What we know:
By secondary structure, the chain is of the alpha/beta class. The chain has 5 helices and 8 strands, in the order E-H-E-H-E-E-H-E-E-E-H-E-H.
Amino acid sequence: MILVSACLVGINCKYNGGNNYNEKIFNLVKEGKAIPVCPEQLGGLKTPRPASEVKGEKVINKENDDVTYEYTKGAEEVLELGIKKAILKSKSPSCGCGKIYSGNFDKTLVDGNGITAELLLKNGIEIVSSDEFED
Length: 135
Ligand code: SF4
């Protein structure tokens, strides 16, 4: 079973209440090959919620609240699912793999991983970013 970011299959769990629907990834769920999960919701965050970015060791939202606890909790819940492969939404502070936003809310991308992606990688789980999946 593959884990996929829930917003990629059309679930409105994105910070702004929208989604990032991708038909090919949706079909994986429809065929019973993948399960959708949103780490930010699993960590207890509401939807919609303020945009957040990883800043150093923390996650800070646009209202300057520290939401590191919720992001970490969500990542741990995802890890407990015991999956071995994941397709995760690019650039997200939870799901992003390889590139994420800088932490300054200036639309700049920097090298790095979202909190969930980082924890999964550290535990040997294979991650394909949604951008790579498209390619
Ligand atoms: Fe999508 Fe992941 Fe953000 Fe949830 S945490 S909205 S699944 S990118």
